[in-house]
Amino acid sequence: MDEPTLTMTTIAASSNNTNNATMTTMTATKDLSGVAWTGGSLVGSLNPINHGFRTSDGRGGHVVTNTHLRYKRARRDGDGNIVQEGIDDDIDSSIPGNIVVQFRDADGDEVGGVMDVPTDAGSNELGALVRSLLGDNDDDDDDVVDDDGRAGGRGGRCVVPYAFFARVIKTERYANASTGVLESRNIEEDIDITDYASLRSFLKQYRDHVSTERTLLLTYRPLAIFRVRPVTRCTDTLPGHTDAVLHVSYSPDGRQLASGGGDAIVRFWDVHTCTPKRVCAGHRDHVLCTSWSPCGTKFASGDRRGYLIIWDPIEGKAFGGSNGGIKAHAKWITGLAWEPMHSSASANVACERIVTSSKDCLVKVWNARTRKCEATLSGHVDSVECVKWGGEGLIYTASRDRTIKVWNGNERMGRVGTLVRTLVGHGHRVNTLAVSCDYVCRTGPYDHRGKIAINDDIDAIVGGGKVDKNSREWREAAYRASIARYDNFKSSDEPERLISGSDDFTLLLWHPTLDKRPVKRLTGHQQAVNHIAFSPDSRFFASASFDRKVKVWNGRSGDFVSTLTGHVGAVYQVAWSGDGRYLVTASKDSTAKLWEVPSGKRARETLPGHEDEVYALDWSPNGSSVATGSKDRTIKIWKH
């Protein structure tokens, strides 16, 4: 029989000012019957907030409870005698049961006062504590997104999950430039502790860098402001293509779906009615790659004959009229990437530049408005397989020549197209690239509802399709919103990260803005790596391989997280949900599969229905639906 003892430190905050919290130590007897116990940890119905207590002076408001649980377990020894065992018997005695913590937001502002927090608290408990300090106590389970991207739950409020970063002090040895003598200096570093089981686990690993006798600074950052429900069923099948569907992609505001395939046709679909809006003929061969501009007012497609077409997705016409096709390359186009909206010199020129890569070994930067080539990037000696435009003004290209090249893509940093550095490390051709800021660059100014702030008043917002996106007011608002979203994304001091995947079965993690040497080599796949994607918050990335497996990795350190097994054919593509909790994969085995990350190793759902290989895949920015495109010439829409 267990005999639990519950001691609580409460922080009572007046409803008028949740930041001016006062600490009150309380002793209470609470009925713990019906609560599940696992390995000495309390799980189940006891939530660290809202226990209904009041402070001694009778004030109401939010009451936060830091729970430090101690109980004894009874067992019989070999002689039949009852022996009491303490929960802390196997715990490192050098780590205390509580630690003094100060929470800070991403701007460095302190939230609440200094407080004792149990060291067995994990990110969920820390998140509940932060939400209580901020006055947000809704339950997680109710916070989902409906088909229009609106938050569900009580009154439509969203519970925000947080990442936590702990400040540690490391000692660095360096050579004094003037004397040559080795000296030491202390360096402060913020360590992501979100995925640690508890503060105790973190403290055990960093015991040499953290003093439990001092206040631990914990910085919190929101991971997502909405939660996505897992897709489980096919709600619509979209016919129309007469050959394999090779690409599907949602617009940045989530209101349109575009597709391209072997029939040389680009199609635009209404997401809400799942009906065709425009059928665009102009290509004369397979449409091999497509890309939406971050503002959502342009759509680019490239084909096997080397032609590039920029489309108006509303009118369904090519910019430049019937002669809008640009003979961009001598061989087929392998990749497209728009300049991120926040990188543009001004709102007037935002979403005007796009870069193309080709099997002719060249990379070109184009002005979508004038349809002129602004720069030709030459240097690769074999086919360029992939191109990305990063958030820091750099263009990344991967080639069959086993190299990755980094080019300047920002006029403020010099001539566009200048080679910055060459990244060497793979032993075979490089197939795919992923940049840590891909998601925020792709969605530009739009939040998960497909809306942007029209001015500094947070309540004044506009939705896609409801205003003139060519107006000066809209362009200025979108430009400012894209800058704000990117700045919020990169609020930490971490450099931009690049992941490359190769036919040599490996991935390489790079800090391409800083160094030409790889940070880490990632091994484990047994065949070629053909696609990589970062989660929207960049905490994880997933790699798809011809070995029929998907691997999930830590997005910052490159450490292995899990292997997702279940497909019986090569995995072609992966796509993340907007909140980073789910992953969908497309395979040669004619199925897509849904996985829960990082906890799941087996597929949560198998999405059958296609009659042939699934080539294309995308998850809508608002999280409401997934689109898959197949060799069977159909597109399927999947929802909760």
UniProtKB/TrEMBL annotation:
WD repeat segments: 238-273, 280-312, 377-408, 522-563, 564-605, 607-640
Pfam families per the UniProt record, alphabetical: WD40
InterPro entries noted in UniProt: WD40/YVTN_repeat-like_dom_sf, WD40_G-protein_beta-like, WD40_PAC1, WD40_repeat_CS, WD40_repeat_dom_sf, WD40_rpt
Subcellular location: Nucleus, Nucleolus
PANTHER family listed in its UniProt record: NOTCHLESS PROTEIN HOMOLOG 1, WD40 REPEAT PROTEIN
Protein name, per record: NLE domain-containing protein
Keyword list, A-Z: Nucleus, Repeat, WD repeat
Keyword set includes Secreted: no
Main location: nucleus
Keyword match Methyltransferase: no
GO cellular component: nucleolus
Organism whose genome encodes this protein: Cyclostephanos tholiformis
SUPFAM superfamilies: WD40 repeat-like
UniProt xrefs under Gene3D superfamilies: YVTN repeat-like/Quinoprotein amine dehydrogenase
